[in-house]
Structures are given as C-alpha cells and as structure tokens.
Design brief:
The chain contains 14 helices and eleven strands. α1 crosses α7, α8 crosses α11 and α9 crosses α10.
Length: 328
C-alpha cells in the first residue's frame, strides 16, 4: 500500500488539494473490485503546519489530520497549488511556510518522493531541492519562475518532470495527469488506464506547449524593445530586414538583438515568429481557411517550413492544432 501525505496550507486551491484524493479513491475502488478484497492500494492523510484547519483560496475551510510535528512517514508527499500574486507576495508566502518547506527537505532526505503541480513548483523550488534538477510549472508563469529560480532546469513545455524523487506537473488541472502517473507508479499501468478512462483524463497529453500563449507577458519595459515589438506586431506579414528595423529604432542591429535577448530572452526574429504563430492559431481556431491560406496570411510562402516551425513551437502540426482547438 502506498501512503500519501497531502499537504494543506492557507490559500491553496481546493481542487488542487482534493483532486488527487478523489483519484486515489477511484483507484482503490477499481483495485478492490478486481481483487475481491477490501484492502486499499492507496492511503492518505492531510498534513498542515499546525494540524489545524486551513482556509483554501475559495474561502472553504478544510480540516487536517495531523501537523508536520507528529506526521507519520509517507511514501509520497503531495504539495498543491495556489493563486500566484507576484514576487512580493511570493516572498511573504515563503516566509510563512518556511517550517513546512524545511519539513519537506527532511522528509525527502529520509526517502519520501515529493510531488507538486502548477504554482506548487514555486514552493518546492524554495526548498532548494530543485536546484540543478529538471522541473516544470504552469506555462504562463514560466518567465517568473526562471527569474526567481535560475538554478532550476526549467522545462515549461513538459506536462510532468521527474528527477531524484522530485516530481512536478504543469498548469492547474495537471493534478489529473499527475494522479494517473502516481497510480501507474505505485500500482499498475492497467489500473492507471482504467482510472483515466473512468475520470475522462486524456493521458495522451504529455506537453503544455499546445496550450501556451507565446506572447504572454512579453511587453518590454525597454522603450526601444517595446517600440520594436509594436512595429513587428503591425508589420508581421511583411518580409522583415533586421538591419532596417534596427535603423528605424535608432540603434545598431547588434544592440537591438542584445536588448531583445536581455528583455525577452528572444531574438527579434523569434519574437516575429511567435507573433505569426499566435496569429495562425487564431485563424485555425476561428476560421475554416485552408492551412495553405493561413500560412500565406501570416507571412509565409512555404507551407512545409511554416508547419515545421509551428510544430516546433506548439508540439502539434497546424492540422492537429485545428482538430484539438477549433471553436465548436
């Protein structure tokens, strides 16, 4: 039997906290039915810093079973997500939860596997355990995570990462994928498949990249870069000469590239490609235009090269993207 510790703390998301427990309950039900016994495959307890109830982000109070002081040993300790409210709020949260974070380090050193999803990755990174190791987090906070924890090998495209008994999953509802992953790990692949089917969890989704907005949070505070962004957004279908663009911005080509990299961690060309891909996404989602026409509308004449670029950035071909996301 796998023993799970479900961590609860003030302002965590309720679904992120309770969802895995529901998944393990489904796994136990299927397991009992198959074996004909009343034994359970998974057991769990909720743990908080003091053992007192916690209030989730939606205002619902949840009782907990034990405090970190008297917590039993667990095979897996799961850390839910929370609403991210900026770097300063993250500083305060890390201070308030320091006893919990220190406890996680101790338990990891004693052999427990630490698991988290979404913004919970920020808390796990605060322990220092993710330094030098691969991790993921919710795709829309990828830049903030990278700036705060530069030593972590962040891979925001992945749905789930795992290294040295440290497991991270992507955005909000990835607790579903993580739960199925844990059921497979601590029970069987057949049981995991049964649970995924029963709960309508698409286990074929292994990456966040199809869901990413490539332009999110990329408005620069650098006036030259911001001006170049605006110009590129309004001339994205044109053939862009980088030297001419730099001249329009009143800087050298080398300076423009350097300032783009410093501000957005992108070259001007990569930023232009992202504009074109996001425009193509909208056309694929909201129109029935042939893909060759979508390609031409966003400034490409070669459908093959555009399709390769599109798949590289989103993980899907244009046709597969339309099939998944086209508005009904």
């Amino acid at each position: 039997m796998a023993k799970m510790g479900i961590v609860a703390y003030d302002n965590c998301y309720l679904s992120s906290l309770s969802g895995p427990m529901d998944s393990f309950q489904v796994a136990n039900a299927f397991s009992c039915r198959q074996s004909g016994s009343s034994g359970t495959t998974f057991s769990w307890n909720t743990v908080s810093i003091t053992g007192e109830p916690v209030k989730t982000s939606g205002g619902i109070s949840i009782a907990t079973d034990m405090s970190i002081v008297n917590a039993e040993e667990f095979d897996v300790i799961y850390l839910p997500a929370f609403p991210y409210q900026g770097a300063l709020a993250m500083d305060e949260m890390a201070k308030e939860l320091r006893p919990l974070l220190d406890w996680l380090v101790v338990r990891w050193k004693r052999g427990a596997t630490l698991v988290t999803i979404c913004t919970g990755g920020f808390l796990l990174a605060e322990t220092g355990l993710l330094d030098g190791r691969e991790a993921t987090t919710t795709w829309w906070l990828e830049q903030q995570f990278h700036k705060r924890y530069p030593k972590v090998k962040l891979n925001g495209r992945k749905m789930i990462t795992e290294q040295d008994r440290l497991m991270c999953a992507g955005a909000m509802t990835s607790y579903q994928n993580m739960s199925v992953h844990l059921i497979e790990r601590y029970a069987t692949a057949d049981l995991a498949i049964q649970c995924a089917k029963a709960m309508l969890i698409d286990t074929s989704v292994r990456a966040q990249s199809p869901y990413q907005n490539l332009l999110m949070d990329e408005v620069s505070g650098d006036p030259v870069v911001a001006k170049a962004q605006y110009w590129l957004q309004n001339h994205a279908k044109e053939n862009i000469d980088l030297a001419a663009l730099a001249q329009k911005m009143g800087v050298s080509q080398r300076t423009l590239i350097r300032r783009f990299k410093a501000e957005l961690d992108l070259t001007p060309l990569s930023y232009l490609q992202n504009i074109r891909i996001e425009t193509a996404k909208q056309l694929l989602e909201n129109t029935t235009l042939p893909i060759i026409e979508v390609t031409e509308r966003v400034g490409y004449s070669d459908i093959s090269s555009f399709s390769r670029l599109f798949k590289q950035r989103t993980g899907l071909t244009p046709a597969a993207y339309r099939l998944r996301f086209k508005a009904k």
